[in-house]
Amino acid sequence: MPADRSALGAFLRSRRDRLTPAQAGMTPFPGPRRVPGLRKEELAVLAGLSPDYYSRLEQGRQANVSVGILDELARALRLDDVERQHLHDLAAPAGRPGTVREPPQVADPGLLRVMTTLDHVPVLLLGDRSQVLARNALLREVLGDPMEPGRVFSDWLLTDPVARERILNWVEFAQYAVAALRRESARRPHDRRLHAEIARLRTDPDVDRWWEDHRVRDYASMTKRIQHPAAGTLTFGVEVLVGPLDPGQRLIVYTCEPGSATALALPLLTSWALDPVPPRG
Q1: 160-198 pLDDT, tens per residue?
Q2: Nearest to 253 by CA among 167, 146, 166, 135
Q3: Most exposed residue of 82, 129, 212, 226, measured as fewest CB within 10 angstroms of its CB?
Q4: Using CA atoms, how far apart are residues 38 and 15, in angstroms rounded to an integer?
């Protein structure tokens, strides 16, 4: 039995809807079209499946799906590497929901040492469910939130007005975060805390709309623009590092171009971050 057959069907349907026959490299079947993208029958032909078998997949009535069929569907739907792995995760055999409570996640000592060497730039260590495991003082100063360990970063990003004010490309970042949460939810189908957090976040109409488009992303590098109340506009290339001991932990490093306005502002921001009462001019 798949981990979540309804989720598998919904993902297939969303990817089918976004792909036209021309994009798929095929001649459309004759007759009026009632869907924006491929018909079920067209996708079945592209993937080498019977229309009935593919219908059962989308309807959540197919108990088992082979790796070969998933790969053919990924090829026919032109999925990227992240989407392909997401498809495999959704179709994976379901294990028994865990009854043992997970121990608290402990920050990776190696990643903490890397953070210490990077105290001249903002750094954040996230664990499962985007929970803050550690951060340096400069990160707190740049984002305008204490971001203490235990804080859920996605909650701050998606619900805190300060996040919307500080992050100039907030919509792009928020959509990215929702797509990453969807990716993590397929990896951790029995994580009740994660799914409860997602359900709570989806009470926001924007988050719910982005969730329903079924986009998936792995946590990866991108540009973040911050409007700091005293230092002005800061531009960072946000890089993601994963340690070898626990792939669920990600070190988020805010980099900047040498000699840029952001690089020149960081020493001043560092002094404010270390001052218990930072000046505001």
Answers
A1: 999 999 999 999 999 999 999 999 999 999 899 999 999
A2: 135
A3: 212
A4: 9
Structural tokens at position 261: 């306005």
Residue 52, classed as helix, strand or coil, is helix
173, 137, 133, 168: which is closest to 150 by C-alpha? 133
Do the Cβ atoms of 125 and 133 come closer than 8 Å?
yes
The fold of 109-274 is Beta-Lactamase (3.30.450)
Tokens for 213, please give them.
Answer: 């488009």
CATH number of 5-91: 1.10.260.40
Q: Transcribe 132-179 into DSSP letters.
A: EEEE-HHHHHHHTS---TT-BHHHHHHH-HHHHHHBTTHHHHHHHHHH
Residue 135 confidence (pLDDT) above 80: yes
Segments making up each domain of the chain, as ranges: 5-91, 109-274
Question: What is the percentage of the chain residues whose pLDDT exceeds 90?
Answer: 79
